[in-house]
Amino acid sequence: MDVKDLVRDKYAQLAIRVAEGASCCAASCCGGSADPITSGLYDEAQIAGLPPDAVQASLGCGNPTALAELHPGEVVLDLGSGGGIDVLLSAKRVGPAGRAYGLDMTDEMLALARENQRKAGVANVEFLKGEIERIPLPDDSVDVVISNCVINLSGDKDRVFAEAFRVLRPGGRFAVSDVVVQGDIPAEIRRNMELWVGCVAGALERDEYVSKLARAGFDAIRVEPTRVYDIEDARAFLSGHGVDVDAAAPLVRDRFMSAFIRARKPLSTGHGSD
Ligand SMILES: C[S@@+](CC[C@H](N)C(=O)[O-])C[C@H]1O[C@@H](n2cnc3c(N)ncnc32)[C@H](O)[C@@H]1O
């Protein structure tokens, strides 16, 4: 199995558990109350009125729609939309004249998200099946690309940034929450596939994130930490994955963080035609 199959498999299982009514799935990166990465991201007022399964399936590491500027009439695309929480929140913000797309590769997550859309009764939403490395939308068709804890899961992040750049209109915004690393991480953690699918091992180093976005063509790039994981958090997310937690946790304390990453597609991309 390659990393994409492992990721698809894990998130399919989580979607099934939520659809079957599990109150808490308790694994890393799955919205359990003890998970330091996914817990406590949304305030009550923001999620009031959303279908409970959309909230229960929240597997993000931030709250991109609270930090992104979204305006009525805009088109928003959520990369790796999961159970759809950020798509439904975006749809409210862009209103009936706007549109919110969710893109996900996992059938079980798409089924859950579409059911949540039906329960929410929103018409300006569409969930698309596909991969964030090959976005099934035309060039220059989106105002804002959001994402919540998904880009770290990709084995080809350059491709994801190139695709986000392609589908954004000139002047369009990239506004994502993701896990980011500051400093060195032990190779044992980087190689651990369970920690990859748990949103940890595949995280980009902060400067690398910025340089990859710049290489894709973005400007106005900013990385804003929203939560830095201390030693107890590190113990929690490293536990149960075959890592020597006592040895590894002190080495990664304060090195993993959730961050909000903003960037912009320039109005002129310098190719002569615009
Ligand atoms: C950590 S969950 C986050 C879900 C959602 N953004 C949230 O905040 O609840 C990751 C989601 O991204 C999807 N995903 C992971 N890698 C993907 C890829 N390369 N292309 C499309 N979807 C992907 C998974 O199927 C899963 O639904």
How many β-strand runs?
8
Poorly predicted spans: 24-33
Sheet-strand content, in percent, reads: 15-25%
The pLDDT mean sits at 92
Tell me, what's the shape?
Answer: globular
For the termini, the CA-CA separation is 44 Å
Listed once per kind, the bound small molecules are: S-adenosylmethionine
Largest sheet: 8 strands, mixed
Please give the count of helices: 12
- Label the structural class: alpha/beta
Helix amount: 25-40%
Order of helices and strands: HHHHEHEHEEHEHHEHEHHE
Return Rg in Å: 18 Å
Helices and strands in order:
Layout lengths: L2 H17 L24 H4 L4 H5 L7 H4 L7 E5 L5 H10 L4 E6 L2 H14 L4 E5 L12 E7 L8 H11 E14 L5 H4 L2 H5 L6 E2 H11 L2 E10 L2 H8 L6 H8 L3 E9 L10
Parallel strand pairs: 1-2, 1-4, 2-3, 4-5, 5-6
Antiparallel strand pairs: 5-8, 7-8
The site of S-adenosylmethionine (SAM) has 26 residues, from α1 and α5.
Q: In words, what does this structure look like?
A:
The protein is built from twelve helices and eight strands. It has 274 residues and is an alpha/beta fold. Strands 1, 2, 3, 4, 5, 6, 7 and 8 form an eight-stranded mixed β-sheet that branches. Helix 6 (107-120) links the parallel strand 2 and strand 3. S-adenosylmethionine (SAM) is lined by residues 4, 7, 11, 29, 58-60, 80-83, 85-86, 104-106, 109, 131-133, 148-150, 153-154, 199. Residues 4, 7, 11, 29, 58-60, 80-83, 85-86, 104-106, 109, 131-133, 148-150, 153-154, 199 line the site of S-adenosylmethionine.
